[in-house]
Amino acid sequence: MKNKIVYYDSPVGLVEIQADKDKIVSLDFKEEKCDQEAANSVLLTAKKQLDQYFKGERKVFELPIKIEGTEFQESVWQQLLKISYGNTFAYKEVAEAIGNNKAYRAVGNANNKNRIPIIIPCHRVTASNGDLGGYGAGIWRKKWLLQHEKDNL
Questions:
Q1: Which residue numbers are catalytic?
Q2: What separation in angstroms does the CA of 115 have from each of 19, 56, 103, 118, 121?
Q3: What topology does CATH give the domain 4-55?
Q4: What element of type H or E holds 147?
């Protein structure tokens, strides 16, 4: 069965949100709408919560998500969900939190494989020296999201 898809016009670009039945499976930044929209209740809720987030009204997403990756990737993504709004963790701190002190580069790779950015807040992970590090959707988006959260604490 094909995933349901909706689009959301965010301050950081067009977002495509996909759901497999009743769980969010991806959030991608797109240049244009590629598929026909077919909403379901979880996608409509996701759009509403994203709208609240971008208005500075929502600090925590309450959405059912489906994450699929290696055991290590999934442990990283679960840890990212624990980083509170407006805060950052270094890649090394995430590695330590999951009990794998030396795996900070692997944490970066897991971040890059996160299919549900913003909701799973990989933008909140930075380098130990304060540099932003990378962001698959563009470093300017990461900078914008971090500043947005700082401004709305």
A1: 122
A2: 12, 23, 20, 10, 11
A3: Double Stranded RNA Binding Domain (3.30.160)
A4: helix 139-151
* Domain ranges across the chain: 4-55, 71-152
Confirm if 127 and 31 have CB atoms less than 8 A apart. Answer: no
Candidates 124, 79, 128; CA nearest to 100 is 79
Give the DSSP H/E element, type plus range, for residue 69: none
What 8-state DSSP symbol labels residue 122? G
- Write the Ramachandran bin of 41: left for phi over 0, alpha for psi from -120 to 50, otherwise beta: alpha
pLDDT reported for residue 1: 59
Q: Identify the CA nearest to 69 among candidates 105, 122, 114.
A: 114
Per-residue pLDDT of the chain (153 residues; tens, 9 = 90+): 589 999 999 999 999 999 998 999 999 999 999 999 999 999 999 999 999 999 999 999 999 999 999 999 999 999 999 999 999 999 999 999 999 999 999 999 999 999 999 999 999 999 999 899 889 999 999 999 999 999 999
